[in-house]
Amino acid sequence: MDFQFIVRVSPMFVKGAWLTVSLAFWGLVLSLTIGLFCALVRYWRWPVISRLAGVYIELARNTPLMIQLFFLYYGLPRLGVLLEGRTCAIVGLAFLGGGYMAEAIRGGLTAVSRGQIEAGLSIGFKRFDLLRYVILPQALAVSLPAITATCIFLIKETSVFSIVALPDLMYVAKDLLKEGHSTESNLLLVLSYLVIILPVSLVFGYLERRVRFAGFGD
Amino acid sequence: MSPNDQVILKITDLKKRFDQTDVLNGISLDVRQGEVTVIIGPSGCGKSTLLRCLNGLEPINSGQIELNGQLLTAPGTDWSTVRQKIGMVFQNYELFPHLNVINNILLGPMKVQKRPRAEALAEAESWLDRVGLKDRALSYPRQLSGGQKQRVAIVRALCMAPEIMLFDEVTASLDPEMVREVLDVMLNLAKGGLTMLIVTHEMAFAKAVADRIIFMDDGLIVEQANPEDFFNHPESERAQRFLNIFQFGRVHRDKN
């Protein structure tokens, strides 16, 4: 183990990790937004737009992120749309994640019983407030494990961003592998991802324990 | 208090069909202010469906419903406003599992009626006290017994200050010893002059609480009478047959 090497390259990993975190953060925020929107549209069966959301969800979930990124980075410029690497990465991750989040949230929405909805209606709630105060709190509690899994999956998926020339963690490690020191580089790479993802896991685990009320039934 | 003459709810020739099955075949019924009306009848006779039609949880096929002169069956009815005037208590309680008792009760008054928290809270606590659950205000529904949940559900509906309350087989999911605590709450509400429309299978309770018994079968009102007359001398053959279900003759065993 070459500790001098580790000390020398650590700042590069920190920089790469920071890029990975910031791209993942925005990707996750957008994924959740898109996912919530698509899930609601499907839940309420809005005509046309619900079908479109269905097509999008299948497209997002059944194509690899790498191909989606190639399309954004190399395909779109031919159509006259030039996106920089960061934008491609965030848009790509949001496109992929939106599909997964939509299904995760929809599962929770359908778990809220008809009786709960009727109880909400019977005290005079209209559609939006019914969603906000009765349906969503219960639905998200049920969806939380699936949302957690998707978040972790998406953070790991950021490791393909190096193909659009972004100096993220994977890019830094691949660069160093060319210099040799593969053991140290790989170790730092694994540790970096662990440091990023483990807190996410723990926070979501804590949230899941907080919302155990969704044992449902009665 | 005895019911006065003012009709608060007027149902005229109400019909309801599920797919090919006729559930309500022309129900006409007037409910007066302060009156306790108990609807009984065999399973599937349409009594629960009738209640659900009254606050718009089931769309109807024809007929009219009027609440204090407002025609609810007219197109463009604002059900959100109407439902605040018609309280509903369900068989399975349907408390919101993510909220504690007090927040279950306050949700409607604060988020729908936009009443100030202090005022709504004072009313909620006073009702909780009256149903014997003041010390459970911060409990979650999963920590309560069935009877406690149902009493909270009644308070939740009452705190919307409804003009009439609908009770849909509210003791049907309860163990016998919990049935009593819920029925006692309802008896007290009846004494207090609340207008109530109750669907139940508890015959002794119906006899005690009702100003009027409605007997339904096959989506029709077959008979209506005051409880003494109905339970002692039911007129229709169907009502007689129904009441016989609740009677048991003494078994005489041969002892050889």
Instruction: Return the average pLDDT of chain A rounded to an integer.
Output: 91
Multimer state: heterodimer
Instruction: Output the number of helix runs of chain A.
Output: 8
Strand content of chain B: 15-25%
Task: Kindly report the average pLDDT value of chain B.
Answer: 93
CATH third-tier fold name of chain A: MetI-like fold
What is the distance, rounded to the nearest whole angstrom, between the alpha carbons of the first and last residues of chain A? 58 Å
Largest interface: A-B, 23 and 32 residues
Order of helices and strands of chain A: HHHHHHHH
- Describe the main β-sheet of chain B briefly: 6 strands, mixed
| Global structural class of chain A | mainly alpha
User: Mind describing the biggest β-sheet of chain A?
Assistant: none
Uncertain segments of chain A: none
Number of helices of chain B: 9
The main sheet of chain B orders its strands as 6-7-8-3-9-10
Report what the structure shows.
The complex is a heterodimer of chains A (218) and B (256). Chain A contains 8 helices and no strands. Chain A has one domain: Orthogonal Bundle (MetI-like fold), CATH 1.10.3720.10. Chain A has helices at 3-43, 49-61, 65-75, 85-111, 114-122, 127-157, 169-177, 182-210. In chain A, 40% of the residues are buried. Chain A starts with a helix and ends in an 8-residue tail after the last helix. The longest helix of chain A has 41 residues, at 3-43. Chain A is flat, with a radius of gyration of 21 Å. Chain A is mainly α. With 256 residues, chain B is an alpha/beta fold. Chain B has 9 helices and 10 strands. In chain B, strands 6-7-8-3-9-10 form a 6-stranded mixed beta sheet, with helices on both faces. A 4-stranded antiparallel beta sheet of chain B has the order 2-1-4-5, with helices on one face. Chain B is globular, with a radius of gyration of 19 Å. Chain B has helices spanning 47-54, 79-85, 101-112, 117-130, 146-158, 176-191, 203-209, 227-232, 237-244, and strands spanning 7-18, 21-32, 36-40, 62-67, 70-71, 86-89, 164-168, 196-199, 212-217, 220-225.
